[in-house]
Every structure is written in C-alpha cells, then in structure tokens.
Amino acid sequence: MTRYARQTILPQVGEGGQARLAAARVLVVGAGGLAAPLLPVLAGAGVGEIHIMDPDVVDLSNLHRQTLFTEADCGRPKAEVAAERCRAINSGVVLRCTKRSITPENVVQNGQNADLILDCADSYAASYTLSDACLALGKPLITASVLGLSGYVAGVCGGAPSLRALFPEAPDGGATCATAGVLGSTVAILGSMQAQMALSALLDLSPSPLGQVVQIDAATLRSTSFRFDTAPEPERTFRFVAASDLTDQDTIIELRGTEEAPVPLHPSAQRIMPENLSDIEPNKSNRLALCCATGLRSWRAAEEISTRWPGEIVLVAASTS
After folding, report:
1. pTM of the full predicted structure?
2. How much is the average pLDDT of 295-307?
C-alpha cells in the first residue's frame, strides 16, 4: 500500500494527477491560522515543493487557532516551525521557509517560478499586493480572509479576474482578529476550503476554482458560493508599496497621529490627518504616497483625493512594511 493510494484511487486524481502534484511548486504567504490546516494537507497530498513566507514568531495568543504550533514553539519563527511540521508529515516534499514580510518585489521574485500562490496572510493589504503581482505574472492565487465567525475563499488571477475585480472598493471596516476576535474553528474551515481549492487548481479539476468565491457564515452554519468569471478589472487602482520603496521625490503623507505612530513611517513624511486632506497641495511631478497602519485609511484617502491629484497615488501599510 503506497502513501498516496487513498487519493490516487480517485478518478479525479489517479497516477497522472499524483504526478502533477509531485511536480507542483507552491508559495504560501502566511503561516498562521489559515495555513494551519492547509499546509499539512498540501504536504500530505505530496505537493512537490512548498515555500512558506511569514515574518512573525509564534506567540501564546496564536495557539487557539494556529494549531501547527505548540507552547514550546513560542518565540520561534512561524515559517521555520511550519516547515518542520510539514517535513515530519512527508519527507518527500521539499520545504523552504523565509522569515520576511511580503513586498511587491519579493512576491514577484518568489512567485514567478511557482505554479500556485496561496494567500494565508489574512491582511487585505497583503491580499491586494499578492493579487496585483499574480495578475501581472499570470499566476493563480487562492486567497482567504476570516474575521469573527465568517470569511471567504476565492480563486483569482491565473486567467480569472483579480481580487480587485471581485472587491474593487475599499473594505467597509478596519477590524482585525486582534481587535474583533476570531474563532479557531472558523479559521480551520476557511483554511481547509483553501486547501481544497488549491488541490483542485493543481489537479486542473472542473469546474475550476479560479473565478469562484465561497463565503462561510459559521454562526449560522451556512455557506454561499458564486462565480465572477466576467467581472471587469477596475479602471483605476491604488497599488500598495513597501515603505522602503519610497523616495524623497515622493509626496509622503502620514495619516496616523503621534499617539498611534510617534515616528512617521518615512523620514520625509508630512503628518496630515484624514479629515484635513484638503491641506495636501497637488503636485503634477510627484507620486503621492499615503501611509497608515493597515492601508484602509490610505485607500479611503486616495479615493477622496484622486479627483484632484494628477499623478500616481500609492498606499503604504505599516503592518506589511
């Protein structure tokens, strides 16, 4: 009895499908709650190479939902521990780990040789950064987000519309798991669905998970699903950039007050609160960079000022820089 006998017996897999999985290279961004069920499934299924990117270390507050980790792992890099756990599951899988935040540049660098990219970061700034890169590279992206008792999983890019086509406007709220809470079982549901969509994409199953979104409401134990294959790409977008990409040639606006951010995200930044956006003087020759914690205030500010700023407007989220 071989390791993969229980899945190769499936007509949707077979020996040919197993060979496809063994040859696949996957980039997983984020090694937290969403990745906890996803990574063992991918390793167990025999996905050939898995590269895990995450900048954080394990904290005690993670353990109720990030079930790859134990109390003994606190203080250790998440990407490193996750790779260790997956190697223990399947020594035949190549595991790579990188302890870094994502940027538009390193996503392209690390994603250009991947067959599939998985967004487990659960940060909408990271999600849109990944989507922009995958759209440019022509790579499929399985993205997920969860908060409280609900969330969604979607297959975007790689021939399907991007995340910006699916959700073209700024999110309604800026709540995070740290501020609004999240239930571990809900995260596990979304991460498992992400794994299912990833394997479906790698096996080229029909219907394709690309162009599909699944929404989960764990409070009512209900789910909904719809396709968005024909969703148009927005005409104007505000892309996310890293703080390290800013230069003195940019007009840089720090939207956070001194209590929230005693030191601005960039030395050249002017501190202007969102309610005072009219104080920003348009400059035809400069790029405008709007900075805040998550990118939400920056995005909303960009929407407000875009009618009178003639040049490019970019967003910087301190949480991903």
Report:
1. 0.93
2. 90
Average pLDDT over residues 56-82: 96
Q: Is 177 a catalytic residue?
A: yes
Query: Is residue 180's pLDDT more than 80?
Result: no
- Catalytic residue, chosen from 97, 120, 134, 177, is 177
Cβ–Cβ < 8 Å for 133, 107: yes
Distance, CA of 284 to CA of 287 (rounded, Å): 8
Q: What percent of the chain has pLDDT over 70?
A: 96
